[in-house]
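The instructor's notes for this session suggest beginning with a concrete chain rather than abstract definitions. Hand out the sequence below and ask the class to guess, before any prediction is shown, which regions might be ordered.
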Amino acid sequence: MHRFIIVGGGAGGLELATRLGDRFGTTDSKTTLRAQVTLVDRNPTHIWKPLLHEVAAGRMDPFTQELEYAAQALWHGFEFQQGELTALDRANKRITIGALRDEEAGEILPERELEYDTLVIAIGSTTHYFGVEGAQENAIALDTVGQAELFRKRLIAACMRAEHYAPEPVAAVVEEDSENVDPVPRIQVAIVGAGATGVELSAELRNTAQVFSAYGLHKLDPKHDIGIVLIEAGPRILPALQERVSNATADLLTKLGVKLLTGETVAQVTRDSIRTASGKIIRADLTMWVAGIKAPAILGKLDGLPTNRLGQLVVRRTLQTEIDDNVFALGDCAACPWPGNERNVPPRAQAAHQQASFLFKSFERMLQGKPLPEYTYRDFGSLVSLGHYSAVGNLMGGLIGGNMLIEGLFARFMYMSLYRLHVAALNGYTRMVLDTVAHWLRRSTAPRVKLH
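After discussion, reveal the predicted structure:
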């Protein structure tokens, strides 16, 4: 049987493994072609990464949304191996997975080698600190559930502490050599990076502060005593989206009391402040860093596979790597051409979903001895959630035949449907509907924000 190995169980990798397993890995599949499908990931569970800002704000309990890889493998005819990719031997078509260790139990699984006929690398991206002094040590990233939970717990602790231990009055933002200072909040959260994740987190945090107050975790004024500052190096927030989407979002955030600092490049991050290149000192009792992404370092050590300046694997439009037809890459870790555009396919969830669907069809053709097609990215627009307050974005391309700005309840509904489509891709529409109902029931009988 043909041996497929998919490294990385994010949105694209898990969808591809599920579809390949359903089609070629189960004995009751409708095709006579068979294949061995193996998914490799360093974690035991999957959560849709665009949800992590809701976990950080406490709006979502991650344990109700995580999917166990081992269970998904059993249900859909593929094998799961837990571990981290450490090496690639292209000549012998073999990958090495590092030993799996636990702090208490020690080594659980030894280092292993797996052989493949077709390898797909889909390990996503990691936070890019751009060499800023103190950023990695003093700011929290948002790559994993663990980091999101750490931020949420520190936020609760900071709010409770600020009520009983009033800090010395420190301005929210101080301009160097200037007497102009902002009002003094009791606690201030700084978010570095005003892309979609930073914007969504800032809106969710405003709701979280109100819920904390309602449940008696603190008696601070949610809007005036808890400050939220969103810092962006570019001239406007949401720099990757259209200007009218950016402007509409900025207006909504301003109404929520989020302070926007654009055109400010962070030069240093300390335990309790941020210094910008222009000389501003920004108080930061808690700092979240979502300013950019880069590919994981391991991609530069995979037996000579070419990478670009961001460390992404350079692929052709077939999603095959430049020098090896048996190694493919998709999602954030792949630098894929976008015909008619100067830049590559953007690192978005919709791109990973499209590429997973494309590779599934490509591998069907490959097993039938047919040539591989070329992938073309279709931009359906972008949506940004502002919590339960609203959503904003633009729809374009095949959805409406043009380009239209949307906001409000309709945009909120469209945003929520994106995750449900991901669940449907993994488990079918029937289970997606059941999961949606179960999720609604849980939310109706639990606090609006995770409090512990």
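Then share the key points. The first strand starts at residue 2 and ends at 7. Residues 397-402 have pLDDT under 50 and may be disordered.
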